[in-house]
Structures are given as structure tokens and as C-alpha cells.
# Entry
Amino acid sequence: MPADSSDDNPTGLAPDHRDFVTALATGLEVIRAFDTDHPRMTLSEVATRTGMNRAKARRFLLTLHGLGYVRRQARYFELAPKTLELGYAFLSANNYQHVIRQHLEHVTQETGESSSMGVLQGANVIYVARSAAPHRLMTIALAVGTQLPAAATSMGRMLLATLDRPQLEAVLADLELTAYTPCTITDIDALRVEVDTAREQGFCIVDQELESGLRSLAVPVYNMHGLLLGAINISTNAARVERKTLEERFLPLLQHTCEQIARQVS
# Structure
């Protein structure tokens, strides 16, 4: 029996593939519609955010409610604590998380700066481990599960740089670049150059493109078999930490940390 070619497709099934389960994809889309800015929504609001009609949105919300993933209070819907099981399943299946956290905490102790690990999900980078420094750098509170635009973050660009050319171009084709600060790159060709540079040099620095005053450095991290785990970074205040310090002091520390992780994670 011939192997299913979709098994070797790292980008996943296309929506028109015969094995693609549209109902499952739509249910997950409804769950992801809830975020920090939209923790509670009416049926109409969910329909608008997901691009569905009200009848379809209602069926999915009621199904998720019946399964315990959504709570209903009068006209409003919100995610139920059971959705945490989805994230916990990832953490449980990837038992290297405690090793990663220990190394991130060591980075914070050595530098006094926050350190995180992220993975790529579409056009976003998702935080899967974090060691926070006492001082706060961003206006939003970063935590495990936080999603940020890959194009404007050091971890995101570093992870984009690990994609092969067809995968990268597929992401860039659907990307809408937002100017978060005057420094943000909003030209696809310029972003492509930055990603290629990160691929060539093995690290990425993003300087005040997501928030003014935020400067960060990221490197890719692999397991002992050479499989990509994600990217780890150090986030700093641009007024306090010079770019030269990132390259000369912090980069060797992150690279050494990646080597240690690779020895311990199978």
C-alpha cells in the first residue's frame, strides 16, 4: 500500500485535502477566537471574529459548551478551564519542558534579563516556557501560551529562518505586516532579507520593532537528534543593554545553553 504523501508534508494538509476534517478545524477556530482582548463574547461577536454566520457559530459554541470547553452566561460565552487541558497535553507530551525552564532560569540569573522559549504556529510565535526577570519590559504580560507576531520578534524570525524556502514563502504570502513602532519592518522583501540573514548567521536580533525600548536576541534550539525544539531568547531594555552586549556577551551564553539542552533532551 503506498504511503500517504501527506505524512511527509511538514506544512500539513490543505483545507481541500480529502483527509482534512473541516468541522474540527472550525471548532478550534472558535476556541482561538477568544483572547486577551475578547475574553467574553456574544454569539454575534464570535460569528464576526470567525467569519461564520450566526447559525453555524451557534452550533459550534453549543457543542463546545456541551463538551465543557465553553461556559455560557446569559448572552455571553467564554472559555472554560477545561481548555487548559489542551495546553497541558502539549506540556505533558513534551517532557523536556522542565529541562528548558531550568536553563532559561540560569540565563536569567546570569544576565538579569528575561529568557523564553517559543515555537512557530503559522505566522505567530507561541511562548512555551519562560523565565521572567523582576523588571517588566513589555506593556503586555508575557506568559506560557502568549502569542506574538513572528515577523516582529527575534524568536519568530529565527524560527522562520529554520523553514525551507517553500514553507517560508507560504507563510510570507499570507502575511500582513503591522507597524508596531517606527522601527518595524513592514516590507515583505526587507523581512525576507532579515530572515535570510538570521539563517546564515544562526541568530537573530530584533531592535525595537514590536515595542519601543524592547531589544531581543534569539537562537534556535535542537534536541540531541538534531530535531528543532523551538527558539530561545533574551529580552532586554534598549536603553540599558547595547546591541554590542547582545552579540558579545549574551549570544555565547545562549549558544552554550542550546548545547546543554541538546545534550539532555532526546
Observations:
- Residues 5-85 form a domain with the Arc Repressor Mutant, subunit A fold (CATH 1.10.10.10).
- The first helix runs from residue 22 to 32.
